[in-house]
Amino acid sequence: MSDVLTPMDRAGADPFAPLAGPGQWHEPAPVFAKGEVPAHVALVMDGNGRWANSRGLARTEGHRAGEYALMDTIAGAIDAGVRYLSVYTFSTENWKRSPQEVRFIMSYATDVLARRTGQLKEWGVHVRWSGRQPRLWKSVITALQRADEQTRDNSTLDLIMCVNYGGRAEITDAARDIARRVSEGSLRAEGVTEKTFARHLYLPDVPDVDLMIRTSGEQRISNYLLWQLAYAEMMFVDTPWPAFDREALWDCLLQYAGRERRFGGAIDAVHR
Ligand code: FPP
User: Which of 22, 25, 135, 259 has the greatest number of beta carbons closer than 10 A?
Assistant: First the structure.
């Protein structure tokens, strides 16, 4: 990562310019042994507003710069062999922001999907949506569904856009679905297991998160993927999201490769 140049600085100002894709970096991605690469990485892209304000810019300029950081990070994830990348784009709590900022984010998400889906398709990305329909702008839902349809034959990387997403909302929706099925008689209450529950999440085919990365120094989960994060490794980096890039992701993946995951088990290794 460069402290001076953000992915947006490197790409130039043209919002339609093709960005450096997978394999188009001045250095190759690190090579990982089998099993060292997390299958599912979840990103909390935090710090857009603070990054912009610290440069005397409006918060929305931070969101614009965040688009470039996201594209660069997706390219780096593909290079490293990550299979699923979840990105927290708009939470069920983000409606508390000013109406102007909410309007900007809704329009900008639609705009990003319209401009970038073609490029993501070329990179082998399947764009998917996780979140609640109610309250979300129709234009955003349509853009997400269109991007999904256009890229659904791809299987290099699933990009899961968490939009109007909340972990508690997802768990509540799954519980409501299960309760309905029990009351209809198509499911027995005694037969409800963790596996049953996981099958009622928004995207049941997506595996649990292996690595969660939050940028910008905050150390919180903020209602993100609460079920799927149960055994995830956590990384909190100080870099604000607009300055994050593929090299920053690779640094996190290298640290992840050095961690020991025990999933509640234990290793008896007495040091003498
Ligand atoms: C957090 O920064 C970032 C977001 C809430 C995501 C913004 C989402 C978009 C602009 C939608 C479309 C864009 C992409 C790239 C998919 P923050 O505003 O919380 O920053 P702060 O913590 O400094 O206030």
Answer: 22
